């Protein structure tokens, strides 16, 4: 008996066409407006998962599929309903991506499964982020001696917030290869 067809859809931008994905035991079909692309599972060479926080959603995740012919498609957990309204689709995304990874790995044993951002990007984010944190921290004593207490407080709050955000982003997006049966939890929405 063939596994059932698995569907996932989301609107990647406000007022854009909805991306509809249909996964069966042979292929992933992606439709957006009048455009339709088909990715045979045996021809998918890469599935790349990242933690991708967006301006309105701290916990957002993205999946990219790339085929041998160079065609690719991206989709994520956030679906835009209007210019200001977004819907998180964590459970649906998690189920679809888990099924996609398992089916694609079964169809193509040479499938490459990657999690996180590239090593260079990860290193650059760490260096630039730490430099920004150092600047924010260094500005606090200056603002206290001027005295501009409000700015000192804002700099301290910004340093704390950005420090926690940067730590979470770098930890979740550590570049790595994974097996189909052990998708890293850091690049997937929490269960539930």
Describe this structure in words.
It is a single chain. The chain is α+β, with helices and mostly antiparallel strands. It folds into two domains: 6-117 and 175-187, Pleckstrin-homology domain (PH domain)/Phosphotyrosine-binding domain (PTB) (PH-domain like), CATH 2.30.29.30; 119-169. 36% of the residues lie in helices and 28% in strands. It is built from three helices and eleven strands, in the order βββββββββαβααβ. A five-stranded mixed beta sheet has the order 7-6-5-10-11, with helices on one face. A hairpin with a 4-residue loop joins strand 6 (61-67) and strand 7 (72-76). The longest helix has 27 residues, at 119-145. It is elongated. 21% of the residues are buried. The mean pLDDT is 92.
């Amino acid at each position: 008996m063939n596994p059932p067809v698995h569907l996932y859809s989301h609107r990647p931008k406000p007022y854009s066409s909805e991306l509809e994905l249909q996964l069966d035991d042979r292929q992933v079909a992606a439709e957006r407006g009048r455009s339709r692309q088909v990715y045979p599972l045996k021809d998918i060479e890469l599935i790349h998962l990242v933690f991708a926080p967006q301006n309105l959603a701290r916990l957002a995740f993205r999946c990219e599929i790339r085929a041998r012919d160079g065609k690719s498609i991206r989709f994520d957990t956030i679906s835009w309903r209007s210019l200001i309204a977004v819907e998180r689709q964590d459970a649906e995304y998690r189920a679809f991506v888990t099924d996609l990874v398992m089916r694609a790995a079964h169809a193509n044993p040479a499938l490459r499964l990657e999690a996180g951002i590239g090593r260079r990007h990860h290193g650059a984010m760490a260096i630039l982020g730490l430099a920004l944190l150092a600047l924010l921290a260094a500005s606090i004593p200056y603002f206290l001696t001027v005295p501009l207490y409000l700015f000192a407080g804002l700099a301290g709050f910004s340093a704390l917030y950005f420090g926690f955000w940067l730590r979470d982003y770098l930890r979740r997006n550590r570049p790595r290869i994974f097996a189909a049966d052990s998708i890293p939890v850091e690049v997937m929405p929490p269960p539930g």
